[in-house]
Amino acid sequence: MSSAGADAASSAESDRPDLLRLHGLRFFGHHGVSAAERRAGGEFIVDLDVEADLSRALVTDDVADTVNYVELYAVIREIVELREYHLLEVMASEIAADLLRLPHVRRVRLRVAKPPRLPAQDKGFAVEIVRPS
Predict the structure, then answer these.
(1) Please, are residues 94 and 45 in contact by the beta-carbon 8 Å criterion?
(2) Which residues of 52-91 are buried (b: 16+ CB within 10 A; e: fewer)?
(3) What's the chain's Rg over C-alpha atoms?
(4) What is the mean pLDDT of each run of 10 residues along the chain (133 residues)?
């Protein structure tokens, strides 16, 4: 590859965001439109993609220079397990807002799902948001 081609490839790679992924996080929470659904509680599954600049961490090998996935998990757990929402959309938005306050987090793609609640459902319901969009 020519020097110009290598530079273009390197530039294209650096333009792509670094991603951290936490998928299949399971929590028990008390959310739903009806009081009965909130009272009974249920399982909620969270999939998270975080865009971050990891370039410094790649040089230092120091967790302080990256997004600590333990902190991501703690934020999600607190919101899903300790708070109560009528709508998954609001819960997902709150999770995203809190995650964006963490160091190095630039953007989040978040999916929150709950198991089927309707007789005709076999895959449940989910909401997916991207912040900032």
Answers:
(1) no
(2) bbbeebeeeeeeebbbeeeebeebbeebbeeeebeebeeb
(3) 18
(4) 45 71 97 92 96 94 95 98 97 98 96 84 88 84
**Residue ranges of the domains in the chain?**
18-131
Q: Which of 52, 114, 129, 133 is catalytic?
A: 114
Q: What CATH fold (topology level) applies to the domain 18-131?
A: GTP Cyclohydrolase I, domain 2 (3.30.1130)
Residues contacting residue 117 through CB under 8 Å, at least 6 positions apart: 32, 37, 124, 125
Report the candidate in 13, 95, 97 with the shortest Cα–Cα distance to residue 46. 95
123 is catalytic: no
